[in-house]
Amino acid sequence: MNPIIDQLSRHRSIRKFQPRAIPRQSLEAFVRAGQCAATSSHVQAYSIIHVVNPDNRARLAELAGGQPYIAECSDFLVFCADMKRPTEAAERAGADVVRGMTEQLLVASIDTALMAQNVAIAAESEGVGICYIGGIRNNPAEVSELLRLPEHVYPVFGMCLGYPNQDPEVKPRLPLPAILKEDYYQDTRDAELVAEFDATMHRYYQVRTGGNKDSNWSEQLKPLFTSKLRPHMQSFLRDRGFGKQ
Ligand SMILES: Cc1cc2nc3c(=O)[nH]c(=O)nc-3n(C[C@H](O)[C@H](O)[C@H](O)COP(=O)(O)O)c2cc1C
After folding, report:
1. What share of the chain is helix, strand, coil (3-state, %, to 5)?
2. pTM for the whole thing?
3. Per-residue pLDDT averaged across 203-229, rounded?
4. pLDDT of amino acid 1
5. Long-range contacts, 229-232 (Cβ 8 Å, 24+)
6. What is the mean pLDDT of residues 136-164?
7. Which residue, 77, 102, 152, 236, is the most exposed by fewest CB within 10 angstroms?
8. Complete DSSP assignment for 6-70
9. Is the Cβ atom of 11 under 6 angstroms away from ligand 1?
10. pLDDT per residue over 91-140, tens digit each?
11. H helices present in 64-134, as ranges
């Protein structure tokens, strides 16, 4: 359609990286592109920790549930929702500030995700592969301690960046009518569209694993909904000063 949409349509997460380093100048250009994302009320409620220390990279790989590519990629970034900086700025300007609102948690998390996705797109436009790492929320308190994150800052996800050493297939997405609805929410076709997508994903897994993975989208979702996912998050966020009211 156009080069940007073409590039977006070729996204796939990369988990094997060449030992080659991303030039610092390129990394900074990706982060600057990240900063260009829209941001709620211009609040820019995020900070990125570029984890350079190899011991810390290895520790984060463990804390994220054993994801070796965190240590192996060229650069690992931890994207943090940061309400500390903007709140303190308003306070220094004389505001009687209110902290800990759930809406502030949403604003900071959304800002962080939008910025990170711009970083991802910029990186991919330069032939760099990326993988988001939500696994850092397996142990968010330990991650926060390692990165010395203060109150009102929390690690949303990490991102591995590096030159790909694999060329995985693009993963299919749900059929458009399942997610794009006209005028109001209607789910009469959802079961049928999900069944169609399950068949697509089954074929994808069969091809990707040489016939070894007999699964589909709905099957893959089961563990997400049969156990409580990261039940520590509510108390962790409260401890960090988020979402108290
Ligand atoms: C917020 C977020 C967290 C993720 N966390 C992880 C992770 O911890 N480990 C991992 O290998 N992939 C992770 N992923 C990658 C997803 O598994 C991947 O994007 C999804 O399966 C779709 O595949 P694709 O990116 O290749 O299209 C994460 C993606 C997102 C958006």
Report:
1. 50, 15, 40
2. 0.98
3. 94
4. 84
5. 230/137, 230/138, 232/140, 232/141
6. 98
7. 102
8. HHHHT------B-SPPPPHHHHHHHHHHHHTS--GGG---EEEEEE--HHHHHHHHHHTTS-THH
9. yes
10. 999 999 999 999 999 999 999 999 999 999 999 999 999 999 999 999 99
11. 69-72, 84-92, 102-125
Q: Which two tokens stand for residue 159?
A: 């991102």
pLDDT for residue 245:
86
Q: Hey, which residues does 157 pair with through a beta bridge? A: 79
CA distances from 45 to 7, 118, 207, 238, 240 (A): 28, 15, 42, 17, 15
Give distance in angstroms: CA of 183 to centre of ligand 1.
31
Query: What percent of the chain lies above the pLDDT cut of 70?
Result: 100
Check if 171 has its Cβ closer than 6 Å to any atom of ligand 1: yes
Ligand 1 centroid from CA 184, angstroms: 29
Tokens 């401890």: give the residue. Answer: 239
Band (89; pLDDT cuts 50, 70, 90): very high
Tokens representing 117 are 């996705």
List, in order, residues 6 or more apart from 211 with CB less than 8 Å away: none
